[in-house]
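Notes from the 1:1 (GR / supervisor)

We went over the backlog. Supervisor wanted to see one worked example end to end before approving the batch request, so GR pasted a single chain during the call. The sequence is below; no edits were made to it. Supervisor asked that the structure be written out right there so they could see what the output format looks like.
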Amino acid sequence: MDDLGRGATSVATTPQGLHVGQTVRVDGLSELPEGKPDYAASMAESSAGMFATTLRSRRARQKSALPPLRWLPRFVLGRNGTDKVIGAQVDMSQLWLSVPRRTLRKSRRKSLGQQQREFDSDLLGNACSQAATWPEAMRLMVSLEDDQAPDGDFNGRLNTVLQNSGFPVSRLDLVFQESGLAQDDKETCYTLSALRDQGCQIFLGGFGSAPSSLSLLRERAVGGLLDGVQFDTSLLAPSDMTWRQSGEAPLLDEGAVLFYRAALEAVKALGLKVRGIGLDFPDLLAFAQKVGCVEASGTVLAAPETTAQISERFEENAGRPRRRRMARTAEGL
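Structure output shown during the call:
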């Protein structure tokens, strides 16, 4: 097998001066060369060895490579159900099997931070390459796993990805973890400022799921280094620890609804946008509309889509005729 996963045909060359056994066809069958009783056994062992090596190589590539990306359409929530698609976000839920394998694996050669940065670079490279064919109005959003991003070298790595893919930074939105945005150094501020100056929107991910600091949000908002927060509405589901006297458990935890509504109002008071994700049933969509989420994604709006499906959606949204697809891609099977 070659590096692209295609079958490679090897032609065996015969060293000079060595005898080569030949088989004689009799009634359609191959006879063993004379004086070579173990010929069949040696050929079987050789074939088995080649098969095992090929299988190990294939498994190694599968472990190191990202699976085909799936996309969550991004919608701007409008009134009376008039939602407008503005792009797509990489569906990180289908990558959870590959993230721990690469980032949480113990390695003597690479630190955890280096493994996380490599995963993010691979993810950004794949996402930007596929999004480069989207219509110009469609924006790409990627959530990063590196809890130390953006570091001082982040923009350099991102520039390499953008140059290789041809995707413009002005149509890219990034979601950083709070620990990365909380780094109090000049390099972090310069990195964020340079990204926003080029049209890249910056969001804080995991708001409400981890210890969050409103003072950090205020500092980043006042400093012009943050566009908004990403809120996972699954936090509104009732906990298994919630005690109820009788009746069925509600779809939403009333206490959580009141708490996060107030927290998101504080976020909006700072002039930050609120993105709602994980909208998987109508009650969560209603909550997102009431708290004023300007953007949302989830299965109640649209299920995760393959690259081919999201491209068709964008073409239809732009009023372009649908092209007939002559080939089936592996990710669409």
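Supervisor's comment: Confidence is low (pLDDT under 50) at residues 1-34, 51-64, 97-104, 320-333.
Batch request approved.
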